[in-house]
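Reviewer has doubts. Consider these tokens.
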Amino acid sequence: MEPISVCYSGNKRIFHGLLLSVLSLAKFTDRPLHVYVLSMDMHELDPSFVPFSEKQIGILDEVLREKNPESRAELIDVTDVFRAELAGGKNMKNHYTPYTLLRLYMDGIERFPDKVIYLDIDTMCASDIAQLYDIDLSGYEYGAVLDYMGHFWIHPQYCNAGVLLLNLKEIRETGLFARAREYVYTHRMIMPDQTALHRLAQRRMYLPRRFNEQRDLHEDTVIKHFCRGIRWLPFFHIYNYKQWQREEVHKKLKITYFDDLYEKFDAVAAKYDINE
């Protein structure tokens, strides 16, 4: 079976979220999974901005191989290239951490195959991710789902970059990510990488909402994205509950679908010291 390549980016402090997301990946597919994790050391900006450890990636690797011996996890450190290109740019102090920008370096990493799924760490698979991976992306740079709030308030075709089906072969040919990195360096934006991709993409495929469900969980949901949202009742407020905030997921979002994965997470946590 063809392996499914998936990429995340982030830092050591959100390993709990990464582990939960990877557990959900493995649960719902029988295909081999090649999981790549982009990270970097930017501790001068924030003491917690340090890379995932090899031990943490080793835990992911073991969890994946337990389901399928052909699966694997790999850490890719992009500290040097990020410091050389974007560290002095206009979006280093932002509501979002600089780790969101790391996906824009995937075109320059030779080990990536032509097709890769990028996932934010605050995502959970609710069914087989092969349904997304097997979409024919020929002629498109990437596929994405409309941003729930952004397509109302920013632009009707504004997409959420938390789930991306990437055609890296096409992206390398059009130079999309290289142009996006330059744009992020020179333009201050609230959602820098997401907005740069929106403004610069030449051919984007619009995917059904079920591949990046940013609100309620539905029967056909493939990926649930625990992103920022708005509630109007009983009063207007913005919420931002992540899958690793178990109590809030249960009480605020009323989601119990992932409870078996919480049990698996607890078993892994008991086996390893995941709070190193």
